[in-house]
Amino acid sequence: MRATAETIDIQEILNRKARRKDLLRNIIPFSGLVFIFVFFTVVTQGKMLSSSNLTNLISQCFSVTIVAAGASFVYAHGGMDFSIGPSCGVAQLVAALIITRSDLPIWLAIAACILVTVVTSTMVGATSAYLRVPVFVVSLCMRAICSGILTVGIAESDIAIDYARFSGFNSEVLKAVVLLVVIGVSYYLFEYTSLGKYEKAMGGNVVTAFQAGVVVKRTQIAAYTLMGLCVGIAGFFQLTRTAGVTGGSGSGLEFDIMVAIVLGGFPMMGGSAARLRSVIIGALTITILSNGLVLWGLDYLLVNGVKGLLFLIIVAITYDRTNQNQMNFTSA
Amino acid sequence: MKKLMRSICLVLATVMLLTCLVGCGDEAAPSATESPSGFATPTPKPASDDPGAEGGEEASGSKIKIPDNLPRYRIGVMYYTFTDKLGSQMKNALDYLAGSFNVEFVYIEATWSSEAGIAALETTLQTGLDGVIAVTSGVPFVEACKKAGDVPCVSIQIEPIDEQVAKEMAAYDNYLGAVCENDFQVGANAIDALYASGVRNLGIVGLTPGLARSHDERIRGVKAALEKYSDMKLVAEDYTMAEYSKSISSFAAAYPEMDGMFCSQGVEAIYQTMNTEGLIGDVKLATVDISESTGDYFDNGTLVSIAGGQYGTTMIGFAVLYNYLYDGTRIIPDTSVTLRRPFVEVKSSNEYEQYLKYVDSSIPVYTVDEIAAMIHGFNPEVTFETFTKSADEYSLADIVSRHSGLF
Q: Which of B6, B13, B26 lies nearest to residue A313, judging by beta carbons?
């Protein structure tokens, strides 16, 4: 009887600790974002909060946040994709060609843009799953293929589209709505459907997930397809924002996503601790960081150094050390 | 203990950051007198809000007076990076002018990504700019300036993609036009020089198409000039990112008959690779952008032509913008037409020495007085023809004749 009471006490303590840890895990990712926002609001003497800058922030965070929402499914199962940027460039190329060289309606250009990235991303996932090639190798190959296509596509000349015709797509209101819809749908899929749960389960332990009945390959490919969908949406808006396709279209997007993943405290290997809000917070943090450093008027020679220091502080605040503590404990 | 260590690390990082910031916040932008420029900085004029104030000193060697009390302008300058040779020359040339014209330049580093460039520009405009000079071209660039309160802007070095885009840009009131080097011509001239030096089997090394329109134009110029010479053969070409060294090594291995090369950018690695591949003496080179080893390779007979001095375009871009800021003068009447300028072409060791003395030296290719003479508010005789004449004359010989008394 006494033993049972002790057991209950211990269980109560463990539950309390778990609740506290869960609470911290929920709060901590926001602290980096709050820190950076307050920091830049102070050093820019409030310029950060001006209405025109806030509308700029919507445009500036749009691509990376949309793609980050899709990429969270891939990173949740421990995957990655280095081909996001070039495939986004190819999608913009195809859409621009449809717009400039045919009389087809705009919605077809949008559909083609999305289709290109869905196909390339799905191919990365499927090739890795069925040919059992590490995904980073496959995505590097896809990156090279897409870069090649983009180079051939603009070999004669960069392609420009009529900015005025697509100015509606540059409305911050539209972007805010699309952003909210994509985040909302992604949040629902990630947190409340079997797809999101399976992705996280695979990130935790793929063998256990398989033994528990998860169709691993199909789930992996679905994550890449979803990400491709988001890259395509972001790609079309990027095209209308820059009003043209160049060799640099889409470049650097994959690295922005990786930085967003780290800054938001999203576990790089995926697993049950993966939260969609982490990548969204990370994406917002990287945007505010870039915006704030420029607003601040920092000398360009110091930007990279200061950015690195701020990264370090944010990661120190937000990084989830749960597994690290377990490893330290085990090794001790 | 662990928590304590962690806290100490965090505090240290914060202290490092704050220490950095004490000296580098808003005051980081160098003032004219403190300019770290490679060019000698003239004495600055005091600031004032009275644009029409008279009584300044007479510019030496001319009748142009720069008023003492110039209004203060804050001008954004966007380029890929200000740490490479051309970027630092551009920055130095502008810093040289800053004090005399009472201008604060805000340098914006754009990346190869168009979207990142626009984002950087949008954000810098939020800090309050009176004008923008940017190595970019396109409607979104002009639109961003318009959205920020009709901020006047000038494109330099990159032309609008096509006539349609040029017309769309010209429809904006705040767009003052584009001032660019003639990259097509410099490519064509390089081929002429290679042909004259006896080259008959040519290799071309360039940047990936689409990354920089200026490089693409140079290659187009090269290809167009090649058509003139039926006995000159294109034996190899490669456009893999900026991996010039790898391309040259491959050419050396696969095309022993190659006796000349055009590289769209004269980076130092090209010379080193030609050395290691044993091409010195066998392969002639023509390229763009002057670097540290340029003189040595004229001496050993490898280089037959090299082009530089593009930073002069930035100074002219500044003059176009300043004209508008000072008294509303629009220099380029039809902004859908680009004001094209030649490169400074160097074709011998002797010319290279002159280049070092007159172009890459303590006084830039245009002095304060020469720029002042292009400002309508200081010199009412200034017209678009003043600028086209200056562009037509721009060459090494022109700079030497204008500046020979200064050294």
A: B13
With CA atoms as reference, the chain B residue closest to A311 would be B13
Q: Indicate the domain borders of chain B.
A: 28-181+310-406, 184-308
**B111 vs A248: CB contact, 8 Å cut-off?**
yes
Residue given tokens 């980076």 in the structure block? B267
CATH of A61-320, one of 1.10.287, 1.10.1740, 1.10.10, 1.10.3470: 1.10.3470
Question: Among residues 178-237 of chain A, which lie with CB inside 8 Å of chain B?
Answer: none
B18 touches chain A (CB under 8 A): no
The residue behind tokens 């990548």 is A279
Query: Looking at beta carbons, which residues of chain A come within 8 Å of B210?
Result: 150-151, 154-155, 158, 245-248
Mention the CATH class of domain B28-181+310-406. Answer: alpha beta
Judged by CB atoms closer than 8 Å, whether chains meet at A313 and B14 is answered as yes
Q: Which two tokens stand for residue A226?
A: 């979803």
CA distance readout (Å), A59 to A47, B109, B222, B247? 17, 19, 40, 39
Burial of A197 (0-12, 13-18, 19+ CB in 10 A): middle
**B8 reaches A (C-beta below 8 A):** no
d(CA B111, nearest CA chain A) in Å:
9
Beta bridge partners of B346: B306
Q: How far apart are CA A20 and CA B286, in angstroms?
A: 68
Torsions phi, psi for B87 (to 5 deg) = -60, -45
**pLDDT tens readout for residues A26-52:** 777 788 888 889 999 999 888 889 998
Q: What residue type is B1 in one-letter code?
A: M
The domain locations on chain A are 61-320
Q: B20: which chain A residues are within 8 Å (Cβ-Cβ)?
A: 302, 305-306, 309
Residue B61 φ/ψ, nearest 5 degrees: 75, 5
Q: How far apart are CA A24 and CA A7, in angstroms?
A: 26
CATH 3.30.70.100 fits B184-308, yes or no: no
CB–CB contact A53 B123 (8 Å): yes
* Residue B168 to residue A310, Cβ atoms within 8 A: no
Q: Binning pLDDT at 50, 70 and 90, where does residue A332 land? A: very low
| ipTM confidence | 0.82
By the CB < 8 Å criterion, does B234 face chain A? no
Q: Is some CB atom of chain A closer than 8 A to the CB atom of B350?
A: no
**For helices B349-358 and B396-403, angle between their N-to-C axes, nearest 10 degrees:** 50
Residues in B touching A295 (Cβ below 8 Å): 123, 126-127
Task: For chain B, 407 residues long, give each residue's pLDDT as a single digit of tens.
Answer: 556 566 665 555 565 555 554 444 444 333 333 344 456 656 544 444 444 444 444 444 456 788 888 999 999 999 988 888 888 899 999 999 999 999 999 998 876 677 888 988 999 999 999 999 998 778 999 999 999 999 999 999 888 888 889 999 999 999 999 999 999 999 999 999 999 999 999 999 998 888 788 888 999 999 999 999 999 999 999 987 667 888 999 999 999 999 999 999 888 888 889 999 999 989 999 999 888 788 889 988 899 999 999 999 999 999 999 999 999 999 999 999 999 999 999 999 999 999 999 998 889 999 999 999 999 999 999 999 999 999 999 999 999 999 988 87
The answer to whether the Cβ–Cβ distance between A56 and B123 falls below 8 Å is yes
Do the domains spanning B28-181+310-406 and B184-308 agree at the CATH topology level? yes
Interatomic CA distance for residues B140 and B153, integer angstroms = 12
Measure CB to CB from residue B13 to each of A158, A248, A309 and give the nearest one. Answer: A309
